[in-house]
Every structure is written in C-alpha cells, then in structure tokens.
Amino acid sequence: MERVLVTGGAGFIGSNLVRHLLAQRPALRIVTLDALTYAGRRENLDGLPETRHAFVHGDIRDRALVDRLLAEHAIDTVLHLAAESHVDRSITGPAPFIDTNIVGTFTLLQAVLAAARPIRFHHVSTDEVYGPLAPDRAPVREGEPYAPSSPYAASKAASDHLVRAYVTTYGLDATISSCTNNYGPYQFPEKLIPLMITNALACKPLPVYGDGKQIRDWLHVEDHCEAIVAIAERGRSGETYHVAGGNQPHNLEIVERLCDLVSPDARQLITRVTDRPGHDRRYALDTTKITSELGWRPRRSLADGLAETVDWYRRR
After folding, report:
1. pLDDT at 280
2. What is the distance between the alpha carbons of residues 151 and 87, in angstroms, rounded to a whole number?
3. Residue 152 annotated in active site
4. Catalytic: which of 34, 59, 152, 256?
5. CA-wise closest residue to 189 among 48, 81, 33, 41
6. Which residues partner with 240 through β-bridges?
7. Is pLDDT above 90 for 120?
8. Is-catalytic flag, 127?
9. How far is CA 175 from CA 77, 79, 123, 195, 219, in A?
C-alpha cells in the first residue's frame, strides 16, 4: 500500500483514517475524494502535508473523475468509506442512500476493474446489515444471513453483495469489513455520542429514544483505522472481517457515562423521546476471525475512549 485513494476521507472515519495513515506511513501518498455533503467537512483535513495528501472535491458516482484519479496518481489501493450512514435520515429520505451507497459503490468497482494496473479494493460496511439480535444471542459471525431493517442498512447490504459479486465474477481483489458503532474525534454531531457530548456541554436536552435499552458495541475510531489497514494489507481477498470494540452497554448507560464526564448535573438534561420506526434493539459482531488471522484487537477501553472523546469536544 503506497498510493491510496480514500473515498469519504473528509468524513468522520475517513478523516481519522487519512490522519492515521499519514502518521504511521512516512512514504505513503493519499488522495482523498469527498463530495462534502453535510457530514463531510474540509476542515477535518486541515494541517495535512500537501506533498503527501491531495484533496479532491467530487462524487464517487462520477466515473470519469474516478478513472482519472486512479490513473494520474497510480493508485494501488482504494479504501472505500464514502457512504450515507445516518439511519434517521434514511427513514425520512432514502434516495441519497441508494445513490451513494449502491450506485456509488458500483461506479468504483467498475473503475477499479477497468484500471490499467491491479488495485486492492477495501469496502467498509456495518453491523446493521445483519439486523437485530436477541439479548441472549451470540455475536454474529462472518457469513451469516443478512436481515437489514432500515433503508441505510439495506443499501449497505446491497453494496456488500456487489463487492462479493465482483470478486466471484471478475476476480476483483477486494475485502470487506463490517464494524460496530464508531466514536471519537471529528464525528458529525448527529450520532449518539457526539450529540450527547455537545448538547451536554451547551446545557441542552439529551434526547434518548424510547426506554434507552438499545444495545450497541462501541469501537474507538482509531482502533477501527488500525483494523482497516490490517485487512487492506493482509486480509485474504474475497473475505469479510468483523471489527468490534468488545463491549455491550445499552444506550442510556452510554449517555449517563457521558453526563458524568461532562458535568455533575448533566443527567438532569436526559429527555425521553418517541422511538424511531424499526429501531433495532441490539447488534453484536464476533471478532474471532480478524484476531486469529490478522492479530488485530481493540487497544482502547470504552472508559478511556469516552473520556478522551469528551476532552476533544470540550477543546473544540
């Protein structure tokens, strides 16, 4: 991995991945392609060395642009993170999720397949493609059936299937990672953790859906970046790897922990709101495969990661 195209690199996970790669690999060159929709911010990439990083404002559905970037920059690896990812938005307006997550992924696959040189393609997906799990059900293993509940999850499931089809049909060199909920710096404040932190710091209400007992596995974004690099470089082509933080708190517990980190009085701001349609109660991924094959495991505890994240938003 020497010349990398990162799609969605101005977003939350993407910008953290770009920074991680540049810090860890002194010889690496990166091109970031991002459409700068509401969750992608050019400021997330401020301060990066122009000699090693180039930002391109553009759409992954623009085939001519993607072809040109792959050729001009002699790209050998595509790390595909560009996606519409907020479940609530997919419920009220699913069209952008179909366009970006399915059509955009298809466009990238076609371009990589037609490129003059071999390119490794890594596709970042989500645990939501598997649908909800019962409270006592074991975490999902790679290869289990998909059962997406939201338009967002369905669009990601479709893009996963496209990647696998291109591996099987055309021999594309590609890998997939499904990850649990990420948190950390540079996250757009519509997701649970940054929303709770920023609202608590501003003494605004902290809206919690329903009874707050939905269960998620929380993964620090830096741990996720390390997993992406491991899979892209050493993962077996055609394989999917699960990436998770290894914890299972319910949402209300997460909100209460954040309140305690922000202010002694912040819990008083917690407000119950009507649950969203089709809200899955629990997700969980088994990470035995990535640990045994690639030696990856999360290095940050949830307690330390949440404290670091609150400090980062407090300094913004």
Report:
1. 80
2. 7
3. yes
4. 152
5. 41
6. 176
7. yes
8. yes
9. 11, 10, 6, 32, 20
Burial readout 220-229 (b: 16 or more C-beta within 10 A, e: otherwise): bbbbbbbbbb
Q: Give the fold, CATH level 3, of 3-186+219-247+283-299.
A: Rossmann fold (3.40.50)
pLDDT in tens, 253-299: 999 999 999 998 999 999 999 887 878 889 999 999 999 999 999 99
Catalytic-labelled residue, pool 84, 127, 226, 280: 127
Domain ranges in the chain are 3-186+219-247+283-299
Respond yes or no: is residue 128 known to be catalytic. Answer: yes
Given the residues 34, 128, 223, 280, the one annotated as active site: 128
> pTM for this structure?
0.94
- At 160, is the pLDDT very low, low, confident or very high (cuts 50, 70, 90)? very high
Contact 11, 40 (CB under 8 A): yes
